[in-house]
Amino acid sequence: KLKDILTELVTIKDELLGLIHDLLRKLNADKTGEFSKLFKLLLRDEVVAKDQIVFSADVIFRAQINSDTKPTLPFDGARINKHIGEGRVVVEKRTDGTYVNDKKLGVRQSVRQLNGGVVDGTEICVEIERDKWAVLNATLCDFFEAHPEFVHDNLKRDKDGKTIYVYFWGTEFLCSALPYNMGVRFGNWNGDRWVSKYGWRSNNNFGYWDVALVFESEGLVPGH
User: Backbone phi, then psi, for 116, in 5-degree steps?
Assistant: First the structure.
């Protein structure tokens, strides 16, 4: 039976792979068994009310990337010092945000950055470690640069329409000329595209518009 299933998977049409992924995700998350029951009815060609079908229709774009892939470094001589990856992940642009493995992306910052305050990047890193922020790495920054259609509005501007600068603290790099300073990639929305840049954590004053990319479950800082 397993052999037959594998044979079917090998010959399946590409356009059905996304549907199969949605189905497996739903079945895996079905704690009550309600979705499984409805799906079995469909397989038996039994009537199911339209409003009982729970497939999501809010996905606009979907892609799979390997988050362990080393990201682009901004100049010769730079080398990776830290890179936090989770293997192959699914990135989705939905109607309400950008998601990685079903977790919505948001932004976070130190409370000391509010109301015009600034903070050194080294202090932000202390908060990230202490409070266990779920930061993302610069491989996603590269992906956004190549595929700007995946960037949702909440990663472009704050609630007042001001541009935000999104830092990917899951990756840090070193430079031989500055061995005691860590570099970090960040990006921002510029017109119709995602622009990637870099900065140094120990000689930058991070202000109100400088935010860390995290999963929204981390909780958004007021103002964003």
Answer: 85, 5
Distance in angstroms (rounded) separating the CA atoms of residues 153 and 160: 12
Instruction: Report the distance separating Cα 171 and Cα 198, nearest Å.
Output: 11
Residue type, 217: S
pLDDT exceeds 50 at position 46: no
Please state the three-class secondary structure of the chain as a single string: CHHHHHHHHHCCCHHHHHHHHHHHHHHHHCCCCHHHHHHHHHHCCCCCCHHHCCCCCCEEEEEEEECCCCCCCCCCCEEEEEECCCCEEEEEEECCEEEECCEEEEEECCHHHHHHCCEEHHHHHHHHHHHCCCECCHHHHHHHHHCHHHCCHHHCECCCCCECEEECCCEEEEECCEEEEEEEEEEEEECCEEEEEEEECCCCEECCCEEEEEEHHHCCCCCC
Distances (CA, A) of 110 to 72, 107, 171, 183: 27, 11, 19, 19
How far apart CA 152 and CA 105 sit, in angstroms, is 9
Distance CA 81, CA 68 (A): 14
93 bridge partner residues? 61, 98
Of 134, 141, 126, 106, the closest CA to residue 223 belongs to 106
- Quick: pLDDT tens for 109-151: 888 887 778 888 888 999 999 989 999 999 999 999 999 999 9
Q: How far apart are CA 218 and CA 106, in angstroms?
A: 8
